[in-house]
Amino acid sequence: MARILTIVGALAASTLLGGWGFDRQGSYCHYDREFTNCGYPSLAACVESARGVGGNCQPNPLYVPDRETRRQRYR
């Protein structure tokens, strides 16, 4: 029972604190007749994937790039 609670606690903490790696949107989408995958970080990666199964690649209309952190200068 303690082992199950430990596993559930670890999964809950990883989900709440960091999120999953596969849920991030990429800047390009692969559109096919049966599915859409918007997890490609570059056009080249999307084209290579589309080459094997068909479809086309277009920029992701919902993509929001990560904010850049700025360093504050102290004088």
Instruction: Kindly state the percentage of residues in helix.
Output: 25-40%
Poorly predicted runs: none
Major sheet attributes: 3 strands, antiparallel
Q: How many DSSP H or I helices?
A: 2
* Structural Rg: 19 Å
- Average pLDDT taken over every residue: 80
The structure class reads alpha+beta
SS strand fraction: 15-25%
Helix and strand pattern: HEEHE
Q: What's the shape?
A: flat
Q: How many β-strands, per DSSP?
A: 3
How would you explain this protein's 3D organization?
Strand 1 and strand 2 form a beta hairpin. The chain has a domain at 22-63. The chain has helices at 2-17, 43-53; strands spanning 28-31, 36-40, 56-59. A 3-stranded antiparallel β-sheet has the order 2-1-3, covered by helices on one side. The chain is an alpha+beta fold and 75 residues long. The chain is 36% helix and 17% strand.
Name the descriptors:
single chain, 75 residues, alpha+beta, 3-stranded antiparallel beta sheet, 2 helices, flat
Brief description of this entry?
The chain is built from two helices and three strands, in the order αββαβ. It is α+β, with helices and mostly antiparallel strands and 75 residues long.
Architecture blueprint of SSEs:
Blueprint: H1 2-17, E1 28-31, E2 36-40, H2 43-53, E3 56-59
Antiparallel strand pairs: 1-2, 1-3
